[in-house]
Amino acid sequence: MVVVDDDTGVRTLLTRILREYGYEVSAARDGAELRSIMAMGRIDLILLDIMLPGDNGIDLCRSIRERSRVPIIMISARGQESDRVAGLDVGADDYIAKPFGRSEVLARVRAVLRRMRDPHAPLDAPVPECFEFASWKYHARRRELIAPSGAEVDLTAAEQDLLLALLRHPQRMIGRERLLELSRSRVGSSTDRSIDVLVSRLRRKLGDGRKIRPLIRTVRGVGYMLAADVVVS
Question: How far is CA 72 from CA 35, 85, 89, 189, in A?
């Protein structure tokens, strides 16, 4: 995901909001930096300001659409209907007017990413059969967690979903709200203690009482990260 805005404050704010939610985000000040980032690999979404130095957002969106279907959300202080229509006409998927709120940004990002999924693909992407991490094994289809000793460890359905969400995104910080969404454990909002309690229960079952390099690391005030390397098969 890339945030493109020449305003340092706005660019930093958007980047922080999206990273705290668990997305991998790059930042660009103008079209030249955006093109350099796009040349490095696949991008899932672009948040693109209209008023940029050099090529403006409308021109950049039109140029991108000539060769890519990457989702684009236009962002600008110019909230008039004509500006929104211009952005949508050249291929933008949505539009956010400044000033914006955190909840609106996250909701629109999630909505655009949902719409961009292959409509013929299942909602739940297939997962590998087995995950191996720190001498543990988790068999996804059988939903079995095997300890280093070879014993099977019982997990609740919520603990199973949480573990699978962490295993799918190793070595990445995942915000509480994003973790709830990934794990499908709709046990509360990201502002309460529900996800913290669930993580604590999973840690106990993993024997993860280490203060130095725990398997599930707390990113204070943000979320959690599975710190172990994961091998899938």
Answer: 14, 14, 12, 28
Sign for the pseudo-dihedral over CA of 83, 51, 18, 132: positive
DSSP 100: -
Which amino acid would we find at residue 153? Answer: V
DSSP secondary structure code for residue 211 in this structure: S
pLDDT digits (tens, 9 = 90+) for 20-70: 888 889 999 999 999 999 998 888 899 999 989 889 999 999 999 888 888
* Predicted TM-score (pTM) of this structure: 0.57
Burial of 153 (0-12, 13-18, 19+ CB in 10 A): middle
Task: Label residue 138 exposed, middle or buried (CB < 10 Å: 0-12, 13-18, 19+).
Answer: buried
* Burial tier of 5 (Cβ tally within 10 Å: 0-12, 13-18, 19+): buried
Six-digit token string for 35: 């093109």
Find the Cα–Cα–Cα–Cα dihedral 143, 148, 151, 154, rounded to 10°. Answer: -40
Cα dihedral value 99, 101, 105, 110, nearest 10: -150
